[in-house]
Amino acid sequence: MNLDPREIKELSDPGTYGDGEGLYLQVAKAGTKSWIYRYQINGRRRFKGLGGFPAISLSEARKERNRLRLKVKAGIDPLDEKADNVAKASAERKAEAARKMTFRNCAETYIDDMSPHWKNRKHEQQWRNTLKTYAYPVIGDKPAADIELDDVLAILQPIWLEKTETATRVRNRIELVIDWANVRKYGSGNNPARWKGNLDKVLPKPSKLKKVKHHNALPYDEAAVFMAALKKQPGSAAKVLQLVILTATRTSEAIEATWSEFDLKKAVWTIPAERMKGEKEQRIPLSKPALSILHEMKNGITGDIYVFPGQKVGRPLSNMAMIKVLHRMERKDITVHGFRSTFRDWVAEQTNFPRRVAEMALAHKLKDGAEAAYQRGDLIKKRTDLMDAWAAYCVPVNGNVIKLRA
């Protein structure tokens, strides 16, 4: 029985009214009316909504029913077709979103996500600067999924020979960003910045190109004269440089030192693992000259967690401060980090302290795996003797430089 177009408007009793060949008008209790198409495929009874009345007229509903009947006869389930269309539309939207995620977008998001977990605050700025300088001009605005080997080579080849260390860092950072993009479904799944089995086939190994560049160091026989001149320099930057020399520590370890790390009564400075390059806690014995510097700082500055505070409250001294002291002393020929070499050369050539004692004083990992496995302690007593001897060499009593032997 076919429905009469004139009677449809008058239907008000809730129920389902057939028009034939699977088309029905469904009247709800609230009086609303909608079209449904009922069919059977693969032994399953199914129904599909076609829209409401009067938005969809009887003639329009019949046309849609006839179209769907042809699909069912062809073995196509209209409901599955709808699901496929939804999935296809979703995939297209995701693909479009992925195309909008350029390498720059991915890199900045990756840095924002990772930087809170980086031990050194400078890493974030180094990441941003190197990518901005080398990567962004080539692939910054390119979708991560479209980056190819030629793009990566365009970035690396101009700097691979002349700036090998920088180039290897840039390559590694690009690789990490693209890995992140692939995991987030923004990439193609391939990583053209990968080294093994990829770039190693077209670029020479960095180890074959890298020229070891040592930090310019002060000859150890000039240490006492230099320290005497340094003590005359004003400001906390000169004092932290003295502490760096006397303890053979790194720049960041000294300028970021907080008072909570020091036990001045026991003359020990304990640097927590998270601040050490080797991620292992380091106890440093403090000589009398080193303690004297710390007492001066404690008496001169109050209310700051840092031993050597910077100009801004709650911030340590700038890592450029000690370099400026050297420049002020007209010693551009040496570096702050080079004083660790000065100390190491002095130990080797002027004392009989064992090599492992000197290496532990510098917080170096022992290269000999067997030796490292059996050396569980930190040799604090022997290192105390070593640092006292070093202090006596750098700050001799009455100006007399004494060559000490353990």
Sum this structure up briefly:
This protein has 406 residues and is α+β, with helices and mostly antiparallel strands. It has helices at 5-8, 58-73, 78-100, 103-114, 122-139, 149-160, 164-183, 206-209, 223-231, 236-247, 251-255, 288-300, 321-328, 338-350, 355-361, 369-374, 380-394, and strands at residues 15-20, 23-27, 33-41, 44-53, 262-263, 268-271, 282-285.
3D architecture notes:
The chain has helices spanning 5-8, 58-73, 78-100, 103-114, 122-139, 149-160, 164-183, 206-209, 223-231, 236-247, 251-255, 288-300, 321-328, 338-350, 355-361, 369-374, 380-394, and strands at residues 15-20, 23-27, 33-41, 44-53, 262-263, 268-271, 282-285. It is an alpha+beta fold and 406 residues long. The chain has three domains: 5-94, Integrase, DNA-binding domain (Double Stranded RNA Binding Domain, 2-Layer Sandwich), CATH 3.30.160; 103-209, Orthogonal Bundle (DNA polymerase, domain 1), CATH 1.10.150.130; 220-399, Intergrase catalytic core (hpI Integrase, Chain A, Orthogonal Bundle). The strands form two sheets. It has a four-stranded antiparallel beta sheet, covered by helices on one side. The protein has a three-stranded antiparallel beta sheet with strand order 5-6-7. Strand 2 and strand 3 form a beta hairpin. The radius of gyration is 37 Å and the shape is elongated.
